Amino acid sequence: MSKVVGIDLGTTNSLVATLDEGQPWVIPDEDGELLLPSFVGLSEAGKLLVGRAALRQYGAAPERTVKSIKRQMGTDFRVTLGDQEYSPQEISAIVLRSLKQRAEEVLGEDVTQAVITVPAYFTDAQRQATKEAGEIAGLEVLQILNEPTAAALVFDDRSEETENVLVYDLGGGTFDVSIVEMTGDVTEVLASHGNNRLGGDDFDRQLQRHLADKFLQTHDIKIPDDDVTQARLLRTAEQAKVALSESAFTTVREPFLASQGKTALHLETELSREDFERLITPLLKETLAAIDRALSDAKMESDALDRVILVGGSTRIPLVQRLVENHLPGILVNSFNPDLCVGLGAALQAGVLAGEAVESILVDVIPHSLGIAAVMETAFGLTPDMFSVIIPRNSVIPVSRSHVYRNMVDQQEAVELEVYQGENTIARENVPLGAFKVEGLPPKPAGALQIEVHFDFDLSGILTVTATEKGKGQQSSFVVNDAETGRLTSAELDQSRDAIASLFDISAMPISDEDEEE
Amino acid sequence: MTRSSPRELASQKIQLRKQQEKLLSDLLTVMDALDRASEHWQQAEQSQTQQIAPTLSWWQQLLQRLAGTAESLPSESLPEVVGSARTGIDMIRETLLGVLNQHQVMPLATKGQPFDPEEMHALGQRADAIAPPNTVLQEVVRGYRWKDRLLREAQVIVAVSANKSDEEAIEEARKEE
After folding, report:
1. What is the domain partition of chain B in residue ranges?
2. A255–B158 C-beta distance less than 8 A
3. How far is Cα A128 from Cα A133, in angstroms, rounded to an integer?
4. Contact check, Cβ <8 Å, A53/B117
5. Residues of A with catalytic function
6. Smallest CA–CA separation between A256 and chain B, in Å?
7. Which of A49, A235, A262 sits opposite B117 (nearest CB)?
8. Touching check for B171 and chain A: CB below 8 Å?
9. Distance to chain A for B1, nearest Cα, Å
10. What is the 3-state secondary structure (H, E, C) of chain B?
11. Which of residues 30-69 of B touch A (CB under 8 A)?
12. A41 to chain B, closest Cα gap in Å
């Protein structure tokens, strides 16, 4: 018997996934890489290159390398490679065949049938071309599936109740937002909007420019504009971006970045998440406008949405999630392996079509928000004992988040962190998980001391809280080893939110007395 | 749990790889910094020697003296300071390279080699009158192999001839391989 697979045929990257005991998983290549860059090329000696090798040679031989062919699907565009001309579907077929081979090698059996995903806005001609690409690659295309639908399938329990899902897909170079209506096995894309030239690469470039400014401020000369220096700066920017999704601060160090006369010039600077967020907010505002347009196209108010799903690697940036949540208050926002989600959904659909038993219970989420007690600005001015949420409920685990807090009074020597779980805005009304102190803080005026509080919730349900004083790096941490902080499967979540809310009330019993105070 | 499924095997493989490679890759960033420092001091040293125009043998003598004895010179001149800094940096660099080599992490030779898309990432092209097209003109980030696999790709700038259909130059590049 041959296996069926799901394929996410992307503009920048593609992947192949299949089912194992009803659960989808992405098939890696022999090096353990999950994503295949959607690049095809010929080496100088005329050898076919697919994926990373083709991507690597693009800078040296753009005339022998094809990228982003997805943008040309359904057109009569022809690319020349070597002495032959190829249609977009032929180039896509090369990518698909490579994925097919990868799957066959890992699974040890033939792969002949596939579900392939396309953007919701693809026209019939573009869909037809994608299907042809599959056939050229030797695959029977069971279905051309919309990407947002595929993503939604990962979180869906196939109940007969109608669910409206908004899929927000922000990748490396493309953005789109779609509204999908799902009733049992029937799904319909109601609206789709986007910008196919916006994504994580733009954020990297913003940060690159920011670093160049920092260099100018430090050394009073402009950073050289040559390829090499700029390439180093871009690479650093990308690394900093990734680091800032986890931590509130990161230090950029690029020794010997340039020279002035014979003096070496280094770049060493601290970037805060706030800095980065300021840089990318204007770009992200545009994505929020697209949400509104999609809603209005679907003739829907935001409160008619049952769920928001974040797809694409750039949705790992905490600000993206926060902006979407704030823009659509009260709507459940889910995210699970945002790079892989579409491919996983395609594998689920392939399984359904092949008559396999599928489980969409993929994700574990935390049922209660986790946070600390803090003094916060409210309508009544500065109010103590407010609950400052660090990991919002329904976050998919494992999850790691951090926030920065400041000292309240001048010369504050210690800060006590009280950790709570729950949804009440008053900290004390929630379930206490314990408390600990960070002591020996350097004397600073009120507001000048920054303490980063990092919550790390792992797959075993263990919460580790770490507080770091930014200046001297004083650190203190605390572990809540507690099954009651609980996990909930996505299937349970798929019941109405009200039902879940009441469920929370029942299970939110006080934790036993094993507070691990220091 | 009798027989591992393809999925389990695949995930074991990825995990193992990530764990082992993480530390080595992190070390490479230190190596990069040392490479740059070394390059900088080498240039500084060259410009110093040009300014003062000493003979090469004089310079070699100095290096030997620096490496061999720890006695401080009565009056330190700038070239000596520069030279000692360079030697020190190079020593640290050699030590780290030795540690990496012990773990079978080896740098890739790229400069002057034909571009190889299996191990090198091309950042761009540059016209060059001498170098055959498709050979590496400049290495921006050094690549490393770990045992028989690529640990980190090299990032390079590749030569392109002003006249693209320069068959001879291409032939030459192949011969070099």
Report:
1. 1-103, 106-177
2. no
3. 9
4. yes
5. 8, 70, 147, 169
6. 6
7. A49
8. no
9. 13
10. CCCCCHHHHHHHHHHHHHHHHHHHHHHHHHHHHHHHHHHHHHHHHHHHHHHHCCCHHHHHHHHHHHHHCCCCCCCCCHHHHHHHHHHHHHHHHHHHHHHHHHCCEEECCCCCCECCCCCEEEEEEEECCCCCCCEEEEEEECCEEECCEEEECEEEEEEECCCCCCHHHHHHHHHHC
11. 33, 36-37, 39-40, 43-44, 47
12. 10
List, in sequence order, every residue forming a beta bridge with A65; answer none if it has no partner. A41
Touching A: B residues 18-37, CB under 8 Å? 18, 33, 36-37
Read off the pLDDT of residues B102-158 as tens digits, 9 standing for 90 and up. 999 999 999 999 999 999 999 989 999 899 999 999 998 899 999 888 999 999 999
Q: Which CATH fold would you assign to the domain B106-177?
A: Nucleotide Exchange Factor Grpe; Chain A, domain 2 (2.30.22)
In sequence order, what are the residues at sequence separation of 6 or more whose Cβ sits closer than 8 angstroms to the Cβ of residue B25?
Answer: B151, B152
Mutation target to probe the B interface, by most B beta carbons within 10 A, among A48, A56, A340, A459 is A56
Q: Exposure string (b/e) for A299-338, b if CB count within 10 Å is 16 or more?
A: ebeeeebbbbbbbbbbbbbbbbbebbbebbeebbbbbbbb
Cα A142 to its chain centre, rounded Å, is 28
Give the pLDDT score at A43: 93
Give A340-379 pLDDT, tens digit per residue: 999 999 999 999 999 888 765 445 667 788 999 988 877 7
A151 within 8 A of A169, measured Cβ to Cβ: yes
Question: What's A316's DSSP letter?
Answer: G
Q: Which of A53, A61, A255 sits opposite B36 (nearest CB)?
A: A255
Q: How close does chain B come to A384, measured CA to CA in Å?
A: 43
